[in-house]
Please model this.
Amino acid sequence: MKQVTLYDTTLRDGTQGTGISFTVADKLRVAEKLDGFGIDYIEGGWPGSNPRDVEFFEEAAKRTWKHAKLCAFGMTRRGHTKVEDDAQVQLLLDARTPVITIVGKTWPLHVTEVFRVSLEENLAMIGDTVSYLKSHGRTVFYDAEHFFDSYREDPEYSLKVIKTAHDAGADLIVLCETNGGALPEYISEVTATAVKHLGCGVGIHTHNDSGTGVANALAAVRAGAVQVQGTINGYGERVGNCNLTTIIPNLQLKMGIEAVPDLTRLSEIAHFIDELANVTPDLRAPYVGRAAFTHKGGLHVHAVQKLARTYEHVSPALVGNQQVIVLSDMSGQSNILMKAEAMGLSIEKGGPVVRDLLEKLKTLEKEGYEFEAADASFELLIRRTLGLTTPLFDHVEFECVFRRDTLRDYENCLATVKLHLGGETILTVAEGGGPVNALDGALRQALITRYPDIARMQLTDYKVRIIDGHRGTAARTRVLIDSTDGSGEWSTVGVSGNIIDASWRALVDSIEYFLMKKAAAP
Model:
């Protein structure tokens, strides 16, 4: 038996987070992914709250789950109502999950002011519901909501609540730090008291309102908690729940507690669920973020080049991430050498090429270029400096005209591009919904006969940043363009005092990079 089990509530508590929503199909895909990852319990939703969750459980019941046990979530019976007459409790049974998790009030403040029942009736609601669900052969987890706030004000009643659920047959009592305001020392002390009072391990459910969600859960584990509840990527109400994506590697790599069979899938799982939720991944997320093992400062890179663990607390490969060396005006030779090596290029350390590249890099970044998020532009810079690229086309000039007729409510953007290609001059014109769209269309028109593969590539994101805003309308603009051909992604950058020119530079780099890679492919 595992020392600590993992309970995922992404599909219920996680969807209470601002901007987080899943379709039924999405929820099934997430559940299957978590099951394959080795999560022990997956809370699918609250069948008494919305038709979507009812449909999810209907579909989930038709599937075979490899490892995880599905859980339906609900609450205790209503006050002064027989448990068998409570429709919400019946819906929990109708979900046909092997595990049912019910939440009940622990804090006297909530009992008397929110539920408006007596403290004695609240205990009866808990005991009746647990014993009724147990009589139907279900595993029952009891979530003691606001346990830690309640314990601070009324420890005697708080312990009486969890003892009532335990004595009624609950398989696990979960202590909930619902408001997210406690600190690890308090969590540890109170969890240890609860474990001693019940004579068995408990579960822990924390929120991150004070930035201590993961720390509090780890403190509870050290104090005797045998289950951690949380969400992937920390989704959840307000600022979110305990982040399983962080706590899983902490348990496994730092505390020696087995959590999942293959931790190398962690980054994949985190990014997959971000993608389904249409959430931009947090680049600074511990373990799985793009910046988690990214090195920028020259001194850091120099040390990492010799011994990675000088600035990496674990190997990125353990969690399915990778080391990244970025280039900036803080870079030293080590950054450039490691970046070039990753591109398959050999450059002599201390040689003139490195010094030349370093000087160009610092000059360009002083002008406003930013290569941290534009690896493709930096690779082109290296290859051009080394003389390893032959221009596939020469861009001679471009023109972009925007016309707006307010009387007829009409607008149009027209771009003209002139290139030298294969010994001839090509002039093309294209319309577009905006200047970048029109320029992209005109450039593709000029190239597609010679390079038909560019039909496969497309722009996926376009970001504009004003660099020196104190100059007002004379400020310089930095444009970042993300592109894809369906199998790979790359980013390019352009800087200019003119937003259209900055966009043109990033656009040309994107197409040149794609054509360069295509030409080099076997």
